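Reviewers asked in the last cycle whether our approach scales beyond single polypeptides. To address this, we selected a multi-component target totalling 1435 residues and predicted its structure end to end. The input consisted of the following lines:
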Amino acid sequence: MGDKEMASSQKVTVYIDDIAYQVSKDNNLLAGVLSQKLNLPYFCWHPSMGSVGACRQCAVTQYQDENDTRGRLVMACMTPVRDGMRIGLQDNSAEKFREQVISAMMTNHPHDCPVCAEGGECHLQDMTVMTGHGSRDYQGSKRTFNNQNLGELVGHEMNRCIACYRCTRFYNDYAGGKDFGVYGSRNQVYFGRQKDGTLESEFSGNLVEVCPTGVFTNKVFSAHYTRKWDLQSVPSVCAHCSVGCNTSIGERYGSVRRVMNRYNSELNGYFLCDRGRYGIGFVNGDQRIKKAQGISQQSAEQLSRLDVSKALAHFRGKRFIGIGSARASLEANVYLKKIVGEGNFSAGYNHQQMEVASTQQKLLQQAQSSGKILSLSDIEKCDFILVIGEDITKSSPRVALSIRQACRNAGIDKAAVMGVASWQDSAVRTISGKLNTPFFSMHTTATKLDELTEQYLLLTPDEIEEMVLVLTNAIYSLINEDFNNEHEKQLAKLSTRQQLFISSLTTKLMAAKTPLIITGDSLSSAKILAAIEKLTHCLAQEKLTTKLNLVVLSAASNSFGLLSLLDKTSLSTEQILSQLSAKEVAGVICLEQELAAFTDDELAMIRESVETIIVLDHTHSRVSEFADIVFPVAAVSEGNGHYVNYQGRVQRYNQVHAPQLPILDSWKWLALIEESFESSIMPTAILRKNKLEPINNLTQLHRYFAESLSTWPLSNKESNKEAIKAVDKNTANNQPVARMTTRASGRTSQAANYAIHEAKVTQDQELLYSFSMEGNKPNTNNAMPFTWAPGWNSNESINHYQVDIEGPLINDIEKDDYLSFVHSLIGFTPDGEEKVEKENSTLVYFPQGSLFKGEWQSANTAEFKLLTHEPDKHFTIYLSNTSAERQGWGNGQWLKIITENVTHIGRLRCDENLPDHLAYGDINELANKNTGVSITLAEAKQSEVLLQQENRQGLYQQAKDSQEKVLQGLKELDQHIPIRFVAGGLDEA
Amino acid sequence: MTEAMMRPLTQLVNLQSPLSLSQYISEGGYQGASKALHEYSPKQVLDLVSSSGLKGRGGAGFPTGMKWSCVPMFEDDDDKAPEFKYLVANADEMEPGTFKDRYLLEGVPHQLVESMIIGAYTMAANRGYIFLRGEYHLAAKRLQQAIDEAYQNNWLGKNIQGSNFSFDLYVHTSAGRYICGEETALINALEGRRAIPRAKPPFPQMSGLFGKPTVVNNVETLSNLPHILKHGAEWFKALSPDSDPGTKIYAACGRVKTPGLWELPMGTTIREILYQHAGGMADGLKLRGLLPGGASTDFLLPEHLDTPMDFDSISKAGSRLGTGGLIVLDDKSCPVAMVLNLIKFFAQESCGWCTPCRDGTPWAVEVLTRIENGSGRKEDLDTLHNLCDFMWLGKTHCALAPGAVEPLKSALRYFIDDFEQHIDHGCCSYKQSINQQTKLKGHCHG
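The resulting structure, written as structure tokens, was:
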């Protein structure tokens, strides 16, 4: 909740079992009771989805006054909170009824607990125990259902369903999904798809957490399963887009098992997208780099610091170019820049992308100067939205989910006027009807959010820029008549539809109180961003609206962290090539980079021009292939560091286990590289003897940065309060937090096939979390490894750690740090034409975003590869009706999509909203430049279609084999659990 | 009073060939609507209906005037006025033992059309729907014919009979679901959604069909309107001076000599309906008990025969007037089997939204089935009592389950011996002697 919300959240007195409590008036009685940390069972209510009163589990007795001893049963979730109301929570008739509800659900619920994935974190189990139901009265048999194959990610076991309707309410109502629903009636209601098939929503994984029983389970987790109480968990941050949703990673026996949502009231709330939930699979992928390459080792079993030093000694004092990465941690990027020095650091962006970055920096500066950039919870409250040049559902899906909620605000307000509270979900939706918050969109492809817009346009990037400029002029002309002429002339050049768009947009924007513009860099268009800058400048200057909010999204988890390091001295990829060809550079260090901006030929050129190429990464790519030295890097689950999200919010991710050596954090390798370049490496023992402190953890690293860099952004804040607290670990209060639950079993015997002796517990150098069940409780601070409360084993236990339901966490005392963009700008101004040729006769194609392929790390997840190559699917290309008709083609026509380098085969679909010169589709391989590609089309022959289908089938089979291999590998690994004694550097194993 | 004035609802019924519009008019039809449109303001009609004391005939007995008074009214130029307001006729007659609406719909369709014009005028509704049970094919055809005639003669559409009032009326045939008789489930079904009832508040008058002000009335209730307009509130009250005002179409089914339906003054006694009009029990049978108002009402016994059939009196006797259709139980039919049959219906018709109804009704079916076929146990009676308590008012999302347990709980009160007989001996006592001969535990279909 924002500050405004807190102030207006009035508390009134409610008597629960004759004790007075202060309860918020803004939410229903159930939320109020739960906020007091009292135990009232429920199923169908959900804090983000409101109340519908279906399950009847939350019944309490309501009394008229002190004298009323009988009272009547009411459903707490449907009851508003009133001052002075009197409730019986533990009163006989309410308790008896609540037990009867469970008893009724149990008439059909199977005895699956021992084999059900939900067991141990099952909300139904918890509520059953809570109501005291223990013995079975029903003598009849249970109804059973057929299950469906819902794809790779979500399992389906309908017999367990208690018909709480949460799944359809989430999938259809909350997330706008279409291919799932509830069928049938009475005690045979069925929740599933019309027929078997992969769930299409980007948020399908949330069914796993929203379902209170084991109907919907994490299929990937189930394949290599362990009980929640046996999992070792840690608080982490999603590594797959710039939102930085908070996650909780769980592992056992040295392999990552799953990702769960970690509640954050301002960002992801209770939900993740499928990329964040399942994208962690790449960590277990068969393309992981697990060994160093190009370094000769003294000892065959172990790589030592001395080995590294010897390998790099030759390059002491020579010039290196360092290419940082938007998916590497802030620390790693800062360190690399420090090592190679100013003038040698690059982000791996080409000139076009550098222009975009430069404009982004200016926009962010502007946005931050007027206050904090909106978090997702703020976005959900906006009353006007304009999306420019982004397919948010595919690039930053969690934001799209929040936009969907924002679209409901007009209806919620209408219901409020009628006296209907926002938590009365069904009534609010009925009253809202089709009324949506004003929402406009412009992009090169159709998107799933289009259905919620008032109007949307499909345009090329140049046309988008033009529209933004026209909009700016339209606003100027509202205040100043001098602009009218210019505005009229511009309007006259637009189509009728575009004119209507501008006029509706202008009216609605001017009338809005909390307007929002969302854009991003996915079109790589500095011109669009520059035009937006003019627009925001106009609105701010003319004080026409209350504060205009701007959100600029980017591709990767640390795009903004990297952006803060770019300045005038930073190199573009073109500049790198020219410097290399002048033979001035000894080597290149690539930090977690796919080098997407370089073609294969350019990579070959780089290979020719330097003595050595050093690559740090966690997964093989063409970059690791052509490297001389490869250092295996810790993935997000194996290391510690900070990512900076789109707001500039600095968030810390932590390692869930100590990975097998020689896998290390990037920054640890960079520390070794720095040492090697500056002097010979001293063994740790000598360092200690000379009282030179080695850098073992982030706190020490940050201190080092603060001392040696003037621009270390976190130095002027007490950024590592948690670490500072932890450093002082002699104090009992500051023990590290346990990663494991108190019930975790098997740790002492896990290596019994090797030795009966209990292995020593791994020491975590970071000092915040321990690799055992010993330590502080998970809720000691607001970065919780997992969530649990007495009697609440499932994720519903988060209720106990929030101040009020759906509000901030209790321990959320210290706010996150934010990076500001006031210093170090690149300082480009966009110049010249963009590289896309504008010939009127050619068709320009833009790729749609892809959830499974759109981010490089998660694209290596086995399940994502399967989902990308589903054999019964095919590529689709969208054309305008006229373009298609002109060629005599209709929906379903098989076409060849021909570019300079490659031809693909896809099926035609007509989109009446497309202009004739524009096409889009899901062939992402045509997306190298992130801008449009000229294509020609021809009819495909049946043989060519068949060939493509065969290829697809082949790729699918490959992916299936890979998935099998990975799974087998993981199960093997369970037998040979690698145990490290210290989660530190190379020589401390 | 003339015959016509004493039996206003059914006086013009002709099942073979219902009156055409011109025939209906020549018999005095559309005079009520005309009076409303030309002589009364909407407020005046509302006051008239309120003072007449008309109560809903769909089963709940809610005062119609009060229901209508909650509809928000707007001035002509108020831009907050919603684009549509709806009047819906609940013609989804699916209460077992009820067939009065069918009689009116097939027999005198124009009466409903006229009624809806009056109702819509009163609440300033511009659109009306007759939500008709899909199985009533003949009624659908006849209603549509009546509506077409009305449009042709300017009784529907724009500026009806030269007034400012415009009203469009449609017949919507439902796909067939008992729960659609619940007004908010009906509204959901009309919207094309799953027929699940809505929580109230907000009430349909504020947020109903498509979120707009909506009133849902039963067919029989609405059919009173033309007559109240024509003859006035006092006449209406005089039709049954000692009871709820107006007439009621009562029915009787079961093993009586002449099952059927009859329009009688509100408050006619059960005895009169059963013995004077339905001819009493069939030969060789004695009255055991009856459900006064359809399947979802409590049993009454022969000792209650002199109870007037009005809302309060029946309620005081421990049951509900409901739809006023008697379902009669004779002494050679098994009460356990009857209750099982009824609860099977309700379990089948449960919409599946709330736990007590969805899982409780089939549970009751399971227990009653075993008791009925002779494998019941003593504990089963406790289970049945618990289920009756579990599915009572306030605990469920709508009134289907409470209605479902009304026959069950009253059967447990009045016919407990039969239940125990089944548990101890496997079947009804009157069957026992027969079964002893064949040594079979059989079904008691009687």
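Chain A touches chain B through 42 residues (CB under 8 Å). We regard this as preliminary and will revisit it once experimental data from Aim 1 are available.
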